[in-house]
Each structure stands twice: as C-alpha cells, then as structure tokens.
UniProtKB/TrEMBL annotation:
The protein's name: N-acetyltransferase
A Gene Ontology molecular function term of the record: acyltransferase activity, transferring groups other than amino-acyl groups
Organism (species): Virgisporangium aliadipatigenens
PANTHER family per the UniProt record, alphabetical: N-ACETYLTRANSFERASE (PTHR43072)
Higher taxonomy: Bacteria, Bacillati, Actinomycetota, Actinomycetes, Micromonosporales
InterPro entries associated with the record: Acyl_CoA_acyltransferase (IPR016181), GNAT_dom (IPR000182), Rv0428c-like_C (IPR056935), SH3_Rv0428c (IPR056934)
Entries under Gene3D superfamilies matching the protein: 3.40.630.30
Superkingdom of the organism of origin: Bacteria
Amino acid sequence: MLGHGDVGHRVVVRHRVGSQATDALGELVAVSESNFTVRTRDGEVAVPRVDVLAAKRIPDRRARSGTERLESIAALGWPAAETDHLGDWLLRATDGWTARGNSALPVGDPGLPLPEAVDAVVAWYTARGLVPAITVPLPLGRRLTAELDRRGWSASPPTLVQTAPIDGLTGPPDPGIRVTRAPSEEWLAAAGRQKHGLPEVARRLLSSGPEVRFAQGNGPTGTLAAIGRGVVAHGWLGISVVGVQPEHRRQGWARRVTKALAGEAAALGATSAYLQVEAHNEAAIALYADQGFRTAHAYVTRRMA
C-alpha cells in the first residue's frame, strides 16, 4: 500500500466506483487517513481508502524509443486537418483522405486503461463519421495489438518506415528538377492521379508542415516527368508522394527527385531522411535500398470491423 514516502511519484490506484472498478493514474499528491489524492490528466482525484482495490508506484515516464520519436516526427510531416490528444496518443482526422491522416497514433500513455482508451478512440472517430482506426507501430503495441485482435479489428498490410543519412542522398544541383515552396497545378494534378483524388483538405495537408518543399521534374519536351514532396522537422527530411509518370519510368527520375529534396533539406539543417513504403512494393524498396535506405520499423493500420 502507498504511504507518505510515495508522494510526488507516479502511481496507479485501482478503486471501486459504484459496481465498477477504474484506475486513477498520475502523480500522488497527498496521503491521509481516509484518502489518496492523485493528480490525473483530468484533474485531482480523491480516492477513499475503503474503495481501494490495489495501489502501487509505477516508473516515472520513460524516455521515448527511437521508433516512438520517429513516428511523432513523421506525424508533424503529414499534419492532419483536425487533431486531438488522448493522453499522449494523437487523434487525426482529414475527411477520410489517407490512412495516416485518419487514424490514431498510439505513442506514449493514453492516460486510461487500454480498453477504455480504445473505446475513446472509437467514440472520437464515430462522432466525425469516420471508421475508427489506429496506426500501430511495430514491434511496439503488443498489448494494443492483442486488444484489437480481441475486438476483431482488421489489419492493413504492413508499411515499412525506412531511414537514411542525408549526406548519402545529396549530389550536385540538378537543373532538371525544380524545388519550390508551393506546388504547381501540374504537380497537384499528378498527385491527384497518384492518390486517387485530391480534395481541398488534401491540398491543405500537403502544403502544411514546418518546412515543406515540392520537387518537380520535366522531360526534354517540357512534359511533367516526376514529382515528390519533402518536409523538414527536427533535423529529419520526410519524403512522400514520389511519383513518376508512366512514360518516364526507369529513367532515374525518382532518384533525381529524392536527391533534389535531400539537397534542399541539408541546407535547412536536416541530417537524416525517412519515408514510408508498402512492404509489398518490391520495386520501390529496391530503389530506396540502392540509395541507402534501411528499414527502421514497420506499422499496420487497424480498423474497427
């Protein structure tokens, strides 16, 4: 049982509320003969000793892992139209455009027992007319995966998150690639074909972020050959929406776009790059491997059935 020596430390106090049991998770701020007072995310909770079922100290917040840090940085690079927080978890909604823009990112502590946290995610997305979804980084989230399995949530094929040092990507300036702060209409049209449509909310997402750049390559006749998007945050370049028009494929355009974005990012202070590629896209994986990208981790998007 907790005592005065535990004041100031993180604790979890399981206690009765009517016929149910719940947890008060947070900092223990006071101990009396009758109550434990816990400062939770929702304010201070006085738990009567007679209702306590179990109480213990828990470790102070641990440092985030490399996977968690990278996922948080990637979220900055793909900013949803609407965001909210459930404890440390990030809730994202973008009118249904892209899985990343419309799924919860379960990094850190949700501030609730896991089943209640998933229930809160369901309520948040249901209120917005969206299918509840959670993007689960692997190998993190084993307990969450088990809970979603129990509920019968579906799972998308894995997506690989790959990283590379910037200095291995850069090269001499390429006069055939133009890098701008805003996308051209031609760039947006190509992205729309690639992403099966580009509603206004998508245009806003693509142009949002700490430092966003758009790369565009045009062939000898002036026709658009390739596009790519880069965003720099916390020393990382996030590469996305790399696409090459069918008639220009196998001519090195994707590599040229990536190098141009890396050169711009290096000038902004980036030292590393990341991208996401579906695990079944063997051609893209081979291309990026040749540029020095290696898989850091993977994620799957789980959706309520």
